[in-house]
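User
Take a look at the entry that follows and flag anything odd:
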Amino acid sequence: MNTGIGDAIDLGWKLAATLKGHAGPGLLSSYEAERRPVGYRNRLASERHTGVRIKIGELYERITDPDVLAREIATLGNAENESWGIEFGYRYDGVEPDPVKYEPTTAPGARLPSTFLRDGSALYDRLGPWFTLLVFGNADPSPLIDSAPAPLDTVLVDDPVAPIYEAKLVLVRPDTHVAWRGNACADGRAVWRQVLARN
């Protein structure tokens, strides 16, 4: 189900951007390139989880001591319910993260790390409905703002959480994946051409 929701979100914003004239001709075709590997990886993970369930069933058939049974089940792991890499860490840049571990990053293609700011609010709650540009410190966002061909919200973040975001400028897509990042932007139009597959 989670994979299907991710599919819908990815396709939804790309269709909307295309229909509203923000996107170039290549944006819709990026849907398959991004989502197919995620779906395939999740299917393989589901297959592994089924294998673990079968092994647990076999343990119940041959072990009657509850403590021994619990230890044996624990050694199989709980990836079915604790695959943080699959749930939070999937990326669109070809990097295959560990399916169990989640390593926050703002590498383009990764999901934006979720953090709470000094005032207790979630950074995710400040993201706009289209693109959002996160600005940390004294970085100049004007090249990206001035050349934006799609709706863009700008969020100034003056907070000690900044190091986890790895750059002073982080451009976030409507699906909360990072579109681009850098400490400065010399050519905003070039960034937008790449992000929206515009010629």
About this structure: The longest helix spans residues 30-62. The chain has a mean pLDDT of 90. Residues 123-195 form a domain with the Glutaredoxin fold (CATH 3.40.30.120). DSSP finds six helices and four strands in the chain.
